[in-house]
Write a structure and sequence with these properties.
single chain, about 130 residues, alpha+beta, five-stranded mixed β-sheet, 5 helices
Length: about 130
Amino acid sequence: MQINRSYYTYQRYKVETAFALLYHHGALGVETLARYLRLSDQFVRYDAHHYFIVFAHTNAANAYKASQNLLLNLDNYFNDRSSAIAIDLFDPSNSVQIVLGRLSQILDVAKATPDARIQDETVLDRRL
């Protein structure tokens, strides 16, 4: 999985990566999504409405900016605001299951907050 590859890259080269989970209500094809991501970013279809995104060589602040650009492009392309993005902080001590679980929790908040459709791990602290 991409998470383990990112952890390996970090251990070997000390290069951080940001993980994100994208939700879109309608059909979002691979070709459409690829058009709006950087060539260095990787993504995997998680299910019919979700994509797991690896913002390679990107810290959390730059991942947030990339997510803003992605949402803007998807909003314009689909002429709706049904997309939301969760970003989790890079922590190589987290297992794949923990990362995906955290992203799902963060995404639940992002989908429920129409004015802030990009959320990061700080929402988990607020839920405690």
